[in-house]
Specification:
The protein has six helices and ten strands, in the order βββαββαβαααβαβββ. The protein is of the alpha/beta class. The protein has one domain: Rossmann fold, CATH 3.40.50. Helix 6 links the parallel strand 7 and strand 8. The chain is globular and about 50 Å long. The two termini are 33 Å apart. Bound molecules: adenosine-5'-triphosphate (ATP) and magnesium ion. The site of magnesium ion has 3 residues, from helix 1.
Length: 232
Amino acid sequence: MIRLNDVSKVYDMGEIKTEALKGVDLEVRNGEFVCVLGPSGSGKSTMLNVISGLDTPTSGKIEVDGMTISNYSSKELTKFRRDYLSFIFQSYNLFQTLTVGENIELAAKISENPLELDDVLAKIGILEQKDKFPSQLSGGEQQRVSIARAVIKNPKIMFCDEPTGALDESTAKEVLGVLEMLNKEYKTTMIVISHNPNIGEMSDRIVKLNSGRIVEIKVNETKKSAKEIAWT
Ligand SMILES: Nc1ncnc2c1ncn2[C@@H]1O[C@H](COP(=O)(O)OP(=O)(O)OP(=O)(O)O)[C@@H](O)[C@H]1O
Ligand SMILES: [Mg+2]
């Protein structure tokens, strides 16, 4: 369970102070698939950063599975991230001089309980690409490699910031299908940030941010599969 209690974040740059989060309260159950929507600058990435301990809130409390991470030192946060979390971004951030298999093995090496490499590759549909280099793959395939790398450590929570931002519709749906499968198969909590409201259709809940505040939380009664969602 992730619990945010009155969480605020102010970026203080001397003259200019930006209140990126203003008293945010939110709970996310383990295994939940949550879509975070909101216009540019509304605080989506900031919220992801403070929940994942990449940044610290200015005030408020953040708990993850009973650990009060808002009190953690940067060393404790590093360990927390390593043991608990994975990230996927719009850019794939793969090592260009390593093969697909080597990119993912690298992540497996620094985790306590990694999943089996070929299993993960097969599940994500890139087993045949194992010995290729990133430059020999399509965008969608590269994003699958970055998902495989995120998943090999068997994280409890996966944070995805615009995971399909650089992909066309059919490739994006395939990538979302992979996130859906991981959420079902491994019970991984998924927090997916997007500009695309259609991703809400495949989520358990939709959290809408505006100007640093949660303006709406909607439970999605009729969850669609990634394949079925509209794309506009
Ligand atoms: N490191 C930083 N230093 C100063 N201000 C920041 C920093 N990061 C974000 N901000 C400001 O905080 C506000 C929220 O930014 P944030 O990146 O969370 O928005 P977002 O919803 O993720 O937007 P986008 O959809 O464009 O990614 C913005 O006004 C932004 O300029
Ligand atoms: Mg952002």
